[in-house]
Every structure is written in C-alpha cells, then in structure tokens.
Prior knowledge:
By secondary structure, the protein is α+β, with helices and mostly antiparallel strands. Helix content is 39%, strand content 40%. The protein folds into two domains: 1-202; 210-400, no CATH class.
Amino acid sequence: xxxxxKDVTTADLAPLLNASGLWQKMGERFGELKDNxxxxxxxALSNGNWQGQARAAHQDSATVTASEYAAAKAEALxxxxxxKQAHTxxxxxxxxxxxLVADAKAKDFKVDGSGKATYVGFDKLSAQEKQxxxxxxxxxxxxxDAQQKAQEWTDAIAKAVGAVDEADxxxxxxxxxxxxxxxxxxxxxxxxxxxxxxxxGTTKPDGWKVTTTGPGVGSSAxxxxxxxxxxxxxxxxDVGHVTxxxxxxxxxxxxxxxxxxxxxxxxxxxxxxxxxxxxxSAEASWGGRGMVEVREDSGHIPLYGRAEGxxxxxxxxxxxxxxxxxxxGAKAFAGAKGGVAxxxxxxxxxxxxxxxxxxxxxxxxxxGYEKDEKTGKWKxxxxxxxAAPLGGALGAEITVDPHKFGKAAIHAADAIGxxxxxxxxxxxxxx
Length: 431
C-alpha cells in the first residue's frame, strides 16, 4: 500500500541511522573475526610441521571459513551503507513535503490530514471587508483563483508524497537484495541507486543475478544550498542496460564474474562548492558499451581481469579538489575502442594496468587520487590516449589499503618471530 500524507509527515526516520550504525559495527566485527581466525587458526598450521591430505583438507576448509567471514563483513557493511543512504534520501524528501506545507500555510492555505489544501485567507477578513468583497465584481474570479491555487498546492504535496513512497520502495528492494542465497553475500551492492532499481537483482536458477533497465527517457535537476552550493543535471535516453553477476565458489576458490552492456545517450553535469572543497564535471555520450570482469578474491594475492568495448561518441571534462580527492581529466572521442585491464593486490597494495586500442579520432588524459570512504582505500590513477584515426591508450592504477597493509606487517613480524624462535629451539636442541 502506498504511503499516505500522514505516514510521510509523522514518520520517525532516526531508527534508520541507528540501525546503520549497528550494522556498521557488526561488519567491522566480522572483519576482526576474519583476521583473528586467519592468524590463530588458518595460519597456525602453515609452518610446515604438519603435512598430508588431512592438513590440505583442513587448510581448504579454513580458507572457506575465512571467506565466509569476509562475505559476512561485506554484506553487513553494504546494509549499513544502504540504511545510511536511505535515512539521507528519505529525510530530504520528507523535508520537501513539510516545506511545501509550511509555504502553503504562509500563503493562507490550510492543509488537512490527507494533504488537501484549502484557501482560508477570506476567513481572516473582517465582516465589513467580507461584505465589500462579496459585492466586488471580481469576487467570483478571486474565489475561482483561490480554488485553482489550492488544487495546485494539493497536487504539489501529493507529488512530493509520491516521491517519498517511490524512495521507500527503492529502499525495500535494495534491502531485500542484500542477503546472499545459501550464505553471506560477498558482492552485496552498497549503492542505493543501483540496488533499489526496479527490475534489478533477478536471480536465475543457474546462479546469475541479472539487472535490467530501459528503455526509457528522463531528466532531473537537483541542488542544495546547505554548507555551500552543489547541484546535478542529468538527461538520458536509454535503449537498455543489462548487468549480470555470478559468484563461483568451489572449495577454497572465490571467483566472481560480472558482465555489463549499455546502449543509449546520456548527458550529466555536476558542481559542488563547500568547505570540503570544489568540484565540477560535465559529460555527454551516445552509443553502446560492454564489459566483462573476472575476480578471484580468496587467495593471498587477489587478481582481476577485465575486457571492455565502446562504439559511439563521448566527451567530458572534470576537475576536483577536496580534502580527500584531487583529480583532473578531459576526453573527446568518436569511433570504436576495445581494451583489457588486469591487476593484483598483495599485502594491501594493489597494482593495475589498462591497454586500449582505438579506431576513430580523439584524445583522453586524466590523473587523480582519492580516498574511498566505504573501504578506507587510497587510489592513485592516470590514463592517456590519442587516435587519428588509429591509436590507443594506456593507464595505471595503484591502491593502498592501510588496514590490510598494517595487518600484513603484523603477520610478517609474527612470522619472523616464529622463524627466529624455531631456529633458537633447533640450535638449543643440538647442545
């Protein structure tokens, strides 16, 4: 059942933020349990003193258990993010409804419990003023005008209430898709806009989770004067967008496959100026693009590989300078391009590279670094390319996860200590 005007105006959204904090703590706790398990259970039997099939079976089982802890952390943190975004979005839309009602009242319109507006300005007139107004030739027109404006206020309030209901349904869909099937979801989507999309997340019997949108057209313009100025403009005409994901878990392996295809046209522009810094970007593109990515995250050195293709035209510029992100970039291209990318991570440090072949005309260059608030990772990346009419592009990306790097350093220190102790014991036994 859709939310009513009363539902929207009386809802207490604070529990969403409280629940988000609890899920965040739970996710962090699962991460601590994973690290503790790997250190004191999984790694305890990795010194080479125990060999054979039983040891191999134990290590495989321990790897799966550690992966489940990691998946539980990912799922919990995704839910925490969804709840936090839900609180922000629903609070904003609820405020829009209340602001509309306040504006209506300030202009002498009364809003009842169902959201219907009625003009009450005539009630404020004195008896003499009412009598004079009723004999005014323009009185019928004034009454009709008041009724028309009352209907406009009623329609505006109803539309704002509908926006809250639409966002609420999006949150419901997103939270319903976060849990895994038969286990924790290591790839739970933490972006509310993606996870709450209608039609997203259909899981087929073969294990593929397919998201489909389009065809459709639309536009939006948003802005906020709080803590500075920021805004976003967007217009799109989508032919279709399909994303398919699958997690392939077989024993200790944890492999995920993602395929994505899009066709259509989009134009976006963003700007933001506040005490945190400044940013601005604009981009336009039309055509089709596709991507396939494979990741292996269960081993000590996670790996990924990706293949991409694009046919069409695109152009864009961007610049950002904030406390946690600096970047500049520009691109313009028409034609077809294809490329591959790959990388690995070791001890919290990831290194990746991209190579593309271009057939058409254009150029691209970008550089930047940023901190991901969700993961705590720092990312440094650069890319450059040119074609006239043949050419290509090369790019590189380095990520640093301070938490993982610190844990790796501790594990390394422990290993050195264990080795030193083993040598000491061996030498002592000789004498």
